[in-house]
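hey team, just a heads up i'm posting the complex here instead of the shared drive bc the drive is being weird again. everything in one block, sequence lines first with there labels, then the predicted structure for the whole assembly after. its two chains so it's a bit long, scroll down
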Amino acid sequence: EDKVVQSPLSLVVHEGDTVTLNCSYEVTNFRSLLWYKQEKKAPTFLFMLTSSGIEKKSGRLSSILDKKELFSILNITATQTGDSAIYLCAKQGAQKLVFGQGTRLTINP
Amino acid sequence: DGGITQSPKYLFRKEGQNVTLSCEQNLNHDAMYWYRQDPGQGLRLIYYSQIVNDFQKGDIAEGYSVSREKKESFPLTVTSAQKNPTAFYLCASSAQQGRGEKLFFGSGTQLSVL
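-- predicted structure starts here --
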């Protein structure tokens, strides 16, 4: 079965901390690795990664892919309460997008 | 404004009842998807459709049915055969199959069993 595994499943930190979220996947039928943020209802797209070692960055968020070890990380520096959300990792295959379980991130003031 | 509209936001199902969740898009997208979200399990694919009058089963299709009679509409029926239907259901669309970075999501329907 196509699997994407995220860790931790839940994380609570204080405002200003740096967090690292992990995502591992199976190599079959791999096209790209995607990260989404789900604050309330609809997930919103953050990053798409296709090549190893190339960091994608947007403000305080960054992400990188390791295609040899089959994982990706999402880093958030200087966290703010508005970063509280579920972060979803997904593997894009030729036809299907397979999601991980998500990491619920809570930022306390 | 272009987007995806799901309705209703909340739905209650009685034992043995079929219920239908609506998903409409005005983005002119060919591909449409239905996902189920349970706490701690991320999103799981129920059905997807690449073109009108064609659809494929996803990973958890049992107890669900869909139709794609119009490009803009992809309704999901939760049948009485689905024994554990309580979940958050998300509809999504994209211009092309296999372009997750171009996926647009609706705001979801929360289905609960009475």
